[in-house]
């Protein structure tokens, strides 16, 4: 954190200097290397199947062209290929003998800028934008080299996280033969913690009340005991097998009193819903969707539907069960959009038109996902695995890195499009961070379809939203049909 004598946007030891002049001098120092290109940086290791597999495991990407030698050999590329979203991973510096390696300014012009910003108290860091262009498929054995150019350093900006500077770099990637394989434009924000709009937490704020506990009695205790055990129990008649909900003292079909229960699969569809607007209770999150869910066992029950905006709801929407622990001994059933299944065959671009919607996809965010994917992308920044370090740098907890956001979005789009789809580019803009305990729901639609040179280009616009707002948005350009010969 900067000394108290450090002027906003200035450098330490500059007290008494006109703040406007100091800011101008500081910005000039930051911009001194703009336009400079660093030395080529060659990856320590070539593209390899174990690293691809580890990335796919962390991202839950089941495309067989990435991990199944037999399926890949019979596919359009004749063997294993790396996920395009791994482009940046191969030249990530990672750790060297237990620590991050030092990189000189002449190697990466951004290094000097980051050091100046750190020295001035701008120690917080988040990625805000990334554009990846893919020129060639990467295969095991390819050895990548990245060459970075410092494209831009912004003047001081006020953001929700704090005052800071945006730094934009452009990196060109080539293989061992000098062939261009892709490029990346990355923008990060270096900010001063504690200067954002959210400010420090107010210790005088009232603690949020817990949700009201459900009414229980001897006739329903078995149901709530099941919820605490992670089971959605449905009352079943031992005599005729009839299922019913809510529980009753006798079978509503045959009148029998010998009642047991069965455990539901947790899969169902949305039969109807309501969105209460007023009055709002502080224990609930709004908008609050109250759904009537029809389970695949044929029983309907009332439940909150989470991870989806009211305008995204539709009758017969597939739903899946999840749980909400409201206090130490109360667990409530909740439903969210069901995770879509991965396609085994690839869509035909001719079947797509502008406005075609991709399936909603909930992504539960937990510590395991954030840490495992950061490691799989060779990103050892402490804000992605160390809560104390994250808080010291201005965020309330660890958060997902941009390589993971790109990987998860790419996996979801690839699952929808099919295993053989080609990738031309993806452009991402980050907003609200993904912290543990949240859920990000992905949505999107086709925004453009164009035929050219024997293949079809399809553009997908996408958004990933969590409880704080939009985490990621952007566009992806896909190639349907044979890739041009110099890209395959």
Automatic annotation (TrEMBL):
<dbReference type="InterPro" id="IPR029069">
    <property type="entry name" value="HotDog_dom_sf"/>
</dbReference>
<feature type="domain" description="ChsH2 rubredoxin-like zinc ribbon">
    <location>
        <begin position="224"/>
        <end position="256"/>
    </location>
</feature>
<dbReference type="InterPro" id="IPR039569">
    <property type="entry name" value="FAS1-like_DH_region"/>
</dbReference>
<dbReference type="Pfam" id="PF01796">
    <property type="entry name" value="OB_ChsH2_C"/>
</dbReference>
<feature type="domain" description="ChsH2 C-terminal OB-fold">
    <location>
        <begin position="264"/>
        <end position="323"/>
    </location>
</feature>
<feature type="region of interest" description="Disordered">
    <location>
        <begin position="191"/>
        <end position="217"/>
    </location>
</feature>
<feature type="domain" description="FAS1-like dehydratase">
    <location>
        <begin position="43"/>
        <end position="181"/>
    </location>
</feature>
<dbReference type="Pfam" id="PF13452">
    <property type="entry name" value="FAS1_DH_region"/>
</dbReference>
<protein>
    <recommendedName>
        <fullName>MaoC-like domain-containing protein</fullName>
    </recommendedName>
</protein>
<dbReference type="InterPro" id="IPR012340">
    <property type="entry name" value="NA-bd_OB-fold"/>
</dbReference>
<dbReference type="Pfam" id="PF12172">
    <property type="entry name" value="zf-ChsH2"/>
</dbReference>
<dbReference type="InterPro" id="IPR002878">
    <property type="entry name" value="ChsH2_C"/>
</dbReference>
<dbReference type="InterPro" id="IPR022002">
    <property type="entry name" value="ChsH2_Znr"/>
</dbReference>
<dbReference type="InterPro" id="IPR052513">
    <property type="entry name" value="Thioester_dehydratase-like"/>
</dbReference>
């Amino acid at each position: 954190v900067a000394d108290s004598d450090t002027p906003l946007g200035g450098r330490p030891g500059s007290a008494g200097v006109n703040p406007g002049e100091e800011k101008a001098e500081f910005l000039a120092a930051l911009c001194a290397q703009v336009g400079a290109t660093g030395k080529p940086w060659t990856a320590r290791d070539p593209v390899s199947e174990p690293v691809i597999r580890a990335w796919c495991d962390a991202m839950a990407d089941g495309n067989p062209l990435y991990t199944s030698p037999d399926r890949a050999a019979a596919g359009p590329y004749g063997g294993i290929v790396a996920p395009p979203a791994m482009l940046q991973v191969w030249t990530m510096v990672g750790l060297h003998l237990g620590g991050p390696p030092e990189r000189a300014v002449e190697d990466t012009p951004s290094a000097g800028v980051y050091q100046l910003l750190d020295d001035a108290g701008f120690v917080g860091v988040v990625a805000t934008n990334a554009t990846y262009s893919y020129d060639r498929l990467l295969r095991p054995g390819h050895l990548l080299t990245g060459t970075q150019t410092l494209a831009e350093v912004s003047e001081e900006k006020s953001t929700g996280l704090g005052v800071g500077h945006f730094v934009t770099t452009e990196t060109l990637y080539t293989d061992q033969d000098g062939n261009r394989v892709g490029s990346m434009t990355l923008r990060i924000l270096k900010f001063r913690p504690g200067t954002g709009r959210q400010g420090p937490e107010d210790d005088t704020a009232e603690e949020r009340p817990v949700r009201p506990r459900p009414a229980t009695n001897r006739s329903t205790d078995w149901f709530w005991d099941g919820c605490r055990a992670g089971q959605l129990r449905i009352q079943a008649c031992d005599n005729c097998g009839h299922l019913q909900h809510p529980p009753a003292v006798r079978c509503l079909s045959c009148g029998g009193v010998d009642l047991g229960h069965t455990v539901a699969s947790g899969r169902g569809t949305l039969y109807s819903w309501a969105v209460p607007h007023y009055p709002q209770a502080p224990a609930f999150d709004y908008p609050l969707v109250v759904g009537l869910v029809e389970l695949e066992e044929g029983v309907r029950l009332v439940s909150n539907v989470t991870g989806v905006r009211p305008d995204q709801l539709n009758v017969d929407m597939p739903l899946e069960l999840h749980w909400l622990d409201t206090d130490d001994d109360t667990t409530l059933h909740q439903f969210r959009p069901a995770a879509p299944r991965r396609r085994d065959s690839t869509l035909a671009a001719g079947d797509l038109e502008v406005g075609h919607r991709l399936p909603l996809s909930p992504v539960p965010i937990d510590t395991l996902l954030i840490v495992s994917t950061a490691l799989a992308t060779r990103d050892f920044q402490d804000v992605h695995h160390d809560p104390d370090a994250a808080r010291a740098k201005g965020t309330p907890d660890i958060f997902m890195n941009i390589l993971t956001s790109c990987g998860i979005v790419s996996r979801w789009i690839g699952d929808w499009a099919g295993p053989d789809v080609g990738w031309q580019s993806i452009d991402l803009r980050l907003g609200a961070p993904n912290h543990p305990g949240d859920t990000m729901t992905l949505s999107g639609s086709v925004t453009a379809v164009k035929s050219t040179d024997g293949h079809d280009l399809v553009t997908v616009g996408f958004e990933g939203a969590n409880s704080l707002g939009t985490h990621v948005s952007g566009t992806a350009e896909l190639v349907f049909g044979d890739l041009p010969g110099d890209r395959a």
